Amino acid sequence: MRIIVLLGPPGAGKGTQAAGLAGDLGLAHVATGDLFRAHVAAGTDLGRLAKGFMERGQLVPDDVTLGMLLARLAEPDAAAGVVLDGFPRTRAQAEALDRALAERGERVEVALLIDVPEDVLVARLADRWICEAAGHVYSRTARPPKVDGRCDVDGSPLVQRADDRPETVRARLAQQMAPLAEVVAHYERQGILRRIDGQESIAAVGAALRAALSGVGAPTAEGAPTAEGVSTGSAPSTGGPSVTGGAPRTGPRQA
């Protein structure tokens, strides 16, 4: 079983890339939000536990989340493996995942970090608009609607969430980046972390993720580029500082 962890800050494009990567590799795409919704809808024991915490506005405990994840790994469509989308989110979760997988004779094969500087993340998230009816996502610059201010799918008005405003985005990033940096360090210590320059186009980031998995251009030194947009370790480059403590490599931007 292949177990691939896809990491990145909010706005890095994890969901889009995880779905594409999983489809190309014939693996299951597993996101914790989807797990919560599925278990709650099915009324499982774990779902009822999670629902209680969510209704109280509390975080779902790690053991409940991990239990859902392990149950997901046992489903037929996950037999070949999974791409974990945004999990683990903390060092404690990463360590618990390692222990649970070891008991099954499995391990995380590689952790892929989509690395994006904070200023770029703020610009992306502050440019995000959603439709009132169903939450379809648009960007005024990267993915504008056909009719300004209206959803292409259902015609409902597009609104900006309060937590997507620049000042709120920066505060949210400040809260989330410290735990992510600890997860990144966890996988760096294991020697299985690969950094991907998330400033590239969606297609270029996807290609870099696949190159990292294929082992194209294996590095001769820690931090050396392995393929366009891919590096190992945390050695800084000439790019701006990233929110996870490293620095993405620079290169030509692709439209």
Describe this structure as you would to a colleague.
This protein has 255 residues and is an alpha/beta fold. The chain has helices spanning 14-25, 32-42, 45-55, 62-73, 91-103, 118-126, 166-190, 202-214; strands at 2-7, 28-31, 81-85, 110-115, 128-131, 137-139, 158-159, 193-197, 225-227, 230-232. It has a domain at 2-27 and 80-118 and 168-232: P-loop containing nucleotide triphosphate hydrolases (Rossmann fold, 3-Layer(aba) Sandwich). The chain contains 8 helices and 10 strands. The strands form 2 sheets. A 7-stranded mixed sheet has the order 2-3-1-4-8-10-9, sandwiched between helices. It has a 3-stranded antiparallel sheet with strand order 6-5-7. A hairpin with a 5-residue loop joins strand 5 (128-131) and strand 6. Helix 2 (32-42) crosses helix 3, helix 2 packs across helix 4 (62-73) and helix 3 (45-55) packs antiparallel against helix 4 (62-73). Mean pLDDT is 84; it is low at 216-228, 234-241 and 247-255.
What key attributes describe this structure?
255 residues, 10 strands, alpha/beta, disordered C terminus, 8 helices, 3-stranded antiparallel beta sheet, Rossmann fold, 7-stranded mixed beta sheet
